[in-house]
């Protein structure tokens, strides 16, 4: 199934709200973990080594930010699903044009439109 994958113990599906803990190297060989939380837009790649996910979040200033994470990267510390979605499409590109409220209604509604 193209719209869901298994990453370690987590089952990731398109439309889920996920939090990716990403290790960042700073000056003087210091490391810190930065969390990028947003909606999973797309899953790409056919094998474990080529698999990538695209995550979109709305920044504090209201601008949408998308980030692509290769799942085979050693810098990914953890991926956690914070909110499950019952969405069935393979890509969520239409989310780019919607407001935050409309996105929540589309992805997490209980079947009522």
Structure description:
The chain is mostly beta strands and 113 residues long. The chain has a five-stranded antiparallel β-sheet with strand order 6-5-4-3-7, with no helix packed on it. The longest helix is centred in the C-terminal third of the chain and has 9 residues. The protein is globular and about 45 Å long. The two termini are 26 Å apart.
How is this fold's topology laid out?
Layout: E1 4-7, E2 10-13, E3 17-25, E4 31-44, E5 52-58, E6 64-70, E7 76-83, H1 100-108
Antiparallel strand pairs: 1-2, 3-4, 3-7, 4-5, 5-6
- General shape: globular
Major beta-sheet overview: 5 strands, antiparallel
**Number of H/I helices:** 1
Please state the oligomeric state of the protein chains shown: single chain
Order of helices and strands: EEEEEEEH
Rg, Å, rounded:
15 Å
Name the beta content range.
over 45%
CATH topology: SH3 type barrels
Give the N-to-C terminal Cα separation.
Answer: 26 Å
Please state how the strands of the largest beta sheet are arranged side by side: 6-5-4-3-7
Helix content: under 10%
Overall structural class, as computed from helix and strand content, comes to: mainly beta
Number of strands: 7
The total number of structural domains is 1
Low-pLDDT windows of residues = none
- If classified by CATH, what would the architecture be? Roll
Q: What is the typical, i.e. mean, pLDDT?
A: 88
What's the CATH first level?
Mainly Beta
